[in-house]
Amino acid sequence: MSKWSDIELHGYVSAAESGGVADQMWLGWAYFEGKFIAPNLALASRWLERAAAGGDPEASYRLASFLHATGQVERVLALLEDAADKGFSPAAYALGEHYRAGQITPRDINRAITAWRWAVSLGHIPAEVQLVRARIQAVPLIQRPLVWLRLVAISLRAARCFWRDPNDPRVLGA
Question: In this predicted structure, what is the pLDDT of residue 171?
Fold first, then answer.
């Protein structure tokens, strides 16, 4: 991917300054990732905060991801819960992952399962895989082959989620 020209950057900044929440989110994410412009964590934080304040659930999710990646974990769970409450399934999935991992909150597999169920109800297939994995660990050894068959079926359905379309028209991806 090429870097943005000064004219392109000015256009994106102008759109973000005019209050476009999606523009603010993508500009902040670009500053965080450094793919199209030089990385700048201060500007990334500024634009992601503004976008999340605009109420967009994906912006809250991306702000939570940014804060987690930069070690500022105090607000991560609250931002993910807010985004999941607004119907953004990747946020519910990420919430479950945080409860499973137990790095920024005490490990709680029951809360992780609840979050993954929430994500599945919102259409998130990888969350369904995590639910099956949790079920595998909970069932007696004799019943595990049946659960593994379910995992294979879900994995086949989920495979299309992990293929990227090289003709995807989105500028920065999802």
Answer: 46
Q: What is the DSSP string of 66-108?
A: HHHHTT-GGGHHHHHHHHHHTT-HHHHHHHHHHHHH-SSS---
Highest mean pLDDT among 5-9, 15-19, 61-65, 159-163: 61-65
CATH code of residue 126: 1.25.40.10
In this prediction, residue 48 carries a pLDDT of 96
Number of domains in the chain: 1
Alpha carbons 129 and 155: distance in angstroms, whole number:
7
Domain extent at residue 41: 6-163
Nearby residues of 77 by Cβ (< 8 Å), 6 or more positions away: 64, 95, 98, 104, 105
Classify residue 1 by its DSSP letter: -
Domain membership flag for residue 51:
yes
Q: What is the mean pLDDT of the chain?
A: 86
